[in-house]
Amino acid sequence: MKHTGLLFFPAFDWSLGATHPEREERLLYTQEQLFEEGVMDLPQIKQYSPGVASLKDVLRTQAIFPSPESHDLAAHLIAAGSSLVLGEAWAKKEIDNGFALVRPPGHHAGATVQGNRGFCTLNNEAILINYLRTFYGVKKVAIVDTDVHHGDGTQDIFYHDPNVLFISLHQDGRTLYPGSGYIYEKGGPNAWETTLDIPLNPGTGDEELHYVLESWVLPRLYDFQPDLIINSAGQDNHFTDPLASMNVTARGYGRITELLKPDLAVLEGGYSIEGALPYVNLAIVLALAGEDYSGVIEPQKPRHSQNSSHSFKGFIKELKDQYRRTKPDWMIRTESFLPLGRWIYYPHTVYYDTEGFREVRKDWIRQCNHCGGTVLIESQNTLTGKESALVRIPFEGCSHCAQAGYDLWEQLKRRSISVLLQDQLNNKVEFWSINKGVASY
């Protein structure tokens, strides 16, 4: 018998406001529905208790600026830690798959964190992935993000990692936050074509989404051959969601799960608290457990799809053609402070909608034929004016990239800024600040 792990963490003491769509009822209605339907009594279901991630677990993956202590991370550490609990259960073969029903969500939180954006501060899936890579020898990971919003934070963290395939199916960024996730976003210089963004038109429903999975996503997963598949299980593609405009049903979500066969799913968005979430989560859990979900029907009926089968297939064919035609266009810059090597420069900004400020980013990636390459991120908070930096030496980094990373680390410590060193190769995390010097985690 296969076993499915479930873990609930409603985060009672974390709130963005009593009437905010991201509130504890998102999980309470689901929990009640699963118990009422007798799902928790199924012999293949194993329930787990929440856990707490350490700061090192977080900083291995994300830089928290100007320091971790400057943010209220309590609930976020439990959401991330609960994902680790299920990840360990999977790695130890206690379960065949699992679903972490946790909040706060995380997929808008990126490689650098200056605050909360899109309801996210810590990226639960990314922290989980790098934990399993560090302690359980997982090499290749695929993430399929089925939230209606582009998983821009997850993409940011793994954009330069050739061993992580990130696929996001989402409502077109021209019509929805965060305004990203276009077909030409294909990965960095050492990880080209390990990012696949599929922007879909408003009104996309079950049939269309399943077609995209079967004709594009599943073949890409098959080619990549991951050791682990994670589903960022956002549920705001549902036809009743108040923040989006898609047309997916609860049974449609059950079929998504059945097609993807994720090893682990982690809850992301979904804000139709009574009309969708209890039914969508029920269908997902039943699909994970190998049970029939065809009888899961929500009270309301979906809108009639505006897409014809022929026109939608033509639209997807054009997206595939655009993806295939997109070629690398790297910006190569030589700066005196950069160690030896060919460095790609990628400037951009990140908008923090919760507090209304921008982070100005200057990303530098060392092009390498042997590993994911050293990454340097220079970050400035436009609200405070403070500057920070992240130096990342990748998993399985080569000796040249490792040396480049430590050269940058020593150089940056001489500046009056906060600097985080992520030596993923050696599981070493150090944080430098002008006031406290070096702190090791």
CATH class of the largest domain: Alpha Beta
The pLDDT mean sits at 94
Question: What are the low-pLDDT stretches, counting only 5+ consecutive residues below 50?
Answer: none
Question: What would the CATH topology of the largest domain be?
Answer: Arginase, Chain A
Order of helices and strands: EHEHEHEEHEHEEHEHEHHEEEEEHEEE
Family: Belongs to the histone deacetylase family.
GO molecular function: histone deacetylase activity
Organism: Desulfitobacterium dichloroeliminans (strain LMG P-21439 / DCA1)
Domain Histone deacetylase: 61-274
Relevant terms:
Arginase, Chain A, 441 residues, 2 domains, 18 strands, globular, alpha/beta, 10 helices, eight-stranded mixed β-sheet
Layout of secondary structure:
Layout: E1 4-9, H1 25-36, E2 45-48, H2 55-59, E3 63-64, H3 74-91, E4 97-102, E5 112-113, H4 124-135, E6 141-145, H5 152-158, E7 164-171, E8 195-200, H6 206-224, E9 228-233, H7 250-260, E10 264-267, H8 277-288, H9 309-325, E11 331-332, E12 343-352, E13 357-366, E14 375-381, E15 387-393, H10 399-412, E16 418-423, E17 428-433, E18 437-440
Q: What would your notes on this structure say?
A:
By secondary structure, the protein is an alpha/beta fold. It has 2 domains: 4-325, Arginase, Chain A, CATH 3.40.800; 331-440, no CATH class. The chain has helices spanning 25-36, 55-59, 74-91, 124-135, 152-158, 206-224, 250-260, 277-288, 309-325, 399-412, and strands at residues 4-9, 45-48, 63-64, 97-102, 112-113, 141-145, 164-171, 195-200, 228-233, 264-267, 331-332, 343-352, 357-366, 375-381, 387-393, 418-423, 428-433, 437-440. The strands form 3 sheets. The chain has an 8-stranded parallel sheet, sandwiched between helices. Helix 7 links the parallel strand 9 and strand 10. It is globular, with a radius of gyration of 21 Å. The mean pLDDT is 94. Belongs to the histone deacetylase family. It comes from Desulfitobacterium dichloroeliminans (strain LMG P-21439 / DCA1). One of its GO terms (molecular function) is histone deacetylase activity. InterPro entries: HDACs, His_deacetylse_dom, His_deacetylse_dom_sf, Ureohydrolase_dom_sf.
